[in-house]
Amino acid sequence: MDIGTLRGLGTALVLVAFVGLLVWAFSGRRKKGFDEAANLPFADEPKSEKREEKASGSKHE
């Protein structure tokens, strides 16, 4: 085996890994989990707003 063959095999391995990653990321089975992860930054907003309203409401009363 010469260096060209090794480089070709390395390129083929990276290509297979890339295609596998694409299939994993865009498969329909993963959509629900990705949607839940995408909404995680917004998960605490209603609770913090209610706490602020209660805190500000109790100060004014």
Automatic annotation (TrEMBL):
<feature type="transmembrane region" description="Helical">
    <location>
        <begin position="6"/>
        <end position="26"/>
    </location>
</feature>
<keyword id="KW-0812">Transmembrane</keyword>
<feature type="compositionally biased region" description="Basic and acidic residues">
    <location>
        <begin position="44"/>
        <end position="61"/>
    </location>
</feature>
<feature type="region of interest" description="Disordered">
    <location>
        <begin position="38"/>
        <end position="61"/>
    </location>
</feature>
<dbReference type="InterPro" id="IPR008621">
    <property type="entry name" value="Cbb3-typ_cyt_oxidase_comp"/>
</dbReference>
<dbReference type="Pfam" id="PF05545">
    <property type="entry name" value="FixQ"/>
</dbReference>
<protein>
    <submittedName>
        <fullName>Cbb3-type cytochrome c oxidase subunit 3</fullName>
    </submittedName>
</protein>
<keyword id="KW-0472">Membrane</keyword>
<keyword id="KW-1133">Transmembrane helix</keyword>
